[in-house]
Structure formats: structure tokens, C-alpha cells
Here is the input.
Amino acid sequence: MASCQSCGITIMSKDEFGKEKNGALKLDYCRYCYDKGAFIEPEMTFELMVEKVASAMKTNKNVSDEAARESATRLLGGLKRWQARH
Ligand SMILES: [Zn+2]
Here is the structure.
């Protein structure tokens, strides 16, 4: 089991991994973030991803905006895609 190093979701099966141009699996990222050797949303910033993940969290649980954003920030802060931003 792995988690996507861009959005933090748990990748449960092989076809959820992103792919390189040659079709090889990209084990760092999920297919919603990465396909054909590139990020699907190259303009994505850490802040935008936090918003996206936070709103996904809110649909699952009854959490406040603030709590969702806080857990999203914590989750995403440890991921490879966002490490280089510092
Ligand atoms: Zn992802």
C-alpha cells in the first residue's frame, strides 16, 4: 500500500497509480494527480491542494473548515511534491 505524494490519498490498487509516458507505473503519485509522465494539474499549488483535500475531508466527516484545513495542511506538508516549495 502506498499513498500519493501529491494529494495524500491511499492507493489501494495498481490501477490507481499514475503512469509514465511509456505506460510504466509512477509509484509516487495517483492517477488523479499524474498521468503520461506529467502532473495533470501542473499549476496546482500547496495552498490549492490544501483547499481541495480539505473540502474532500468535509464531505466525509462532519468537520469544521478550520479542522479540515488543519489536517490537510499536516497531511500534505509531509509529501514529496510539496517538499521542494521551501
Ligand atoms: Zn494524488
Summary: Helices lie at 46-60, 65-77, 80-83. Residues 4, 6-7, 9, 29-30, 32-33 surround zinc ion (CB under 6 Å).
